[in-house]
Predict the structure.
Amino acid sequence: MNYRPEGCLFRTAENQRAISNIEGIEDAMKKGTILEARAALCDSSHDLIVDLPCGKGIIPREEGAVGIKDGKTRDIALISRVNKIVCFKVTEICTDKDGNTIIKLSRAEAQREFIENCVRKFSAGDVIEARVTHLEQFGCFVDIGCGVPSLIPIDAISVSRISHPSDRFHAGQFIRAVVRSNENDRICLTHKELLGTWEENTACFEAGETVSGVVRSVEDYGIFVELSPNLAGLAELRNDVHPGESVSVYIKAIIPEKMKVKLVIVDTCEDCEPCRDINYF
């Protein structure tokens, strides 16, 4: 199976067929197929109620995520899934006292399968797909498959310094990441190594060009302007320029022997520039 971050299977024809009727659910339970559907609510017991066309889907609290049962994962991991797509395996089909169909599910079982078949085989240097789930001041949390989380620390996001991960990413974005280490199924990730070397980035620019950039910091000796995630140049001071602003800059010189780019700020823009598409090298 091709394991991917949660949400990638939901709209596929195979998944929609399987969750649309009880026969498909029974077949998925028999084969151990991982399915996806939307979590409608998290009840007072922290069971996730899943929106299924053919019955009431329930992911019991302890089956909501790997680590919930032994306390290694906090219940916020369940609460935060409400109104989002979750993956699961079907564990039981039964009826309640009123004759309604109850379909018991396990998200943790899907995660355990992914960990066994993929995570334990990851080694340092592997490039993997990830999906941004949420951003904190200290880094970017991502889903590396089946809702299994990992963190990219802010200093590992790009060589060009940023004030917050939102300067580079947004929730729901698909990115690539590099496995830095894998210890006891805990994956440590980095991102900046995929964004190219100084030489690779400067090859995309020429002296004499006027291009767009983002102000990353204002120092006593000049203004650092990001031209690409792994490339920044230094411009002369201006009083009307502030970190986070989008600017147009004239490339005065590219100096390979000193790995420096000299810039002149031409103009500022009123709106901050949104996250750019990432160019991986």
User: Anything to note?
Assistant: The first strand starts at residue 35 and ends at 42. The chain is about 15% helix and 40% strand. The first helix runs from residue 13 to 20. Residues 62 and 69 are 5 Å apart (CA to CA).
